[in-house]
């Protein structure tokens, strides 16, 4: 009880959602899926950190507008980002005058926010919550690696931090998609120390979460329209598929990674693909939720992955733990397994 799959009795619904991105993302294959973008990546702000905060403000404002809602219709906000002490969330959402839960799950933050919010909506404590997150390439590079102006060479396994933000509302008793099940992730550390290979650090956590889900639920990959990972990229996606095959689980035909979907790796110089809190969040809000709503997909697993490190841990040569939180989104209001 409590360590496995949590089945949500009322199946809270995904409400309106919005995705805001930068220029490189708007030049990618999913350009038409996003609500707004800025060619300068500044969003009218003087620093990259303030630009990221503005993206969060725009994302939540846009999501509310799309749903015909005002801030007083939200009972709580669950938000986080990559910048020290989550200042993008704190500053960007400060004026919404709603209870605020600051989260850090690295790039898994959108799933963490949706899980926590959905459980509280399912309990009846809240009617509607907002899960919000963001990342900004220049802000993240400055904090975790080198300022962009430095011009440091990136390794082939490195990923491109997405400049993007998304806000997703979760509410009671609405039309689908519904959050039927959630499975909080466990920290997994397989000894990876390379900060330029986040996919390898996160893939074992993703494999652990999916293995636990399939073993407990009795379901199979073929039962789902898609199994979605957040930002494993080219390197991590291959590792995940191999790890699961060793457990007798083959997801290759239904696996989609948001980090590989965000950019065209042949045309855009992103090396192993996209990463960052905004990666999974923007692709989920802009692409997968609409795919479910229009009937192209019926039942999906979404699993956002995160590398639980900071600048001090990298400088000290510590290993990089990974985390992967899972949600099952379905258009069905109920089914035999969960009735």
What does this structure look like?
- The protein has 339 residues and is α/β, with parallel strands linked by helices.
- The chain folds into two domains: 6-171, Peroxisomal Thiolase, Chain A, domain 1 (3-Layer(aba) Sandwich); 178-330, Stage V sporulation protein AD (Peroxisomal Thiolase, Chain A, domain 1, 3-Layer(aba) Sandwich), CATH 3.40.47.40.
- 33% of the residues lie in helices and 22% in strands.
- It is built from ten helices and 14 strands.
- The chain has helices at 23-26, 48-66, 87-92, 109-123, 137-144, 198-217, 233-245, 258-261, 277-293, 311-315, and strands spanning 6-7, 13-22, 36-38, 76-80, 100-102, 128-135, 160-161, 164-171, 178-183, 226-229, 255-257, 274-275, 299-307, 322-330.
- The strands form three sheets. It has a six-stranded mixed sheet with strand order 1-9-14-13-10-11. It has a six-stranded mixed sheet with strand order 3-2-8-6-4-5, sandwiched between helices.
- Helix 6 packs parallel to helix 7 (233-245).
- The longest helix is centred in the middle third of the chain and has 20 residues, at 198-217.
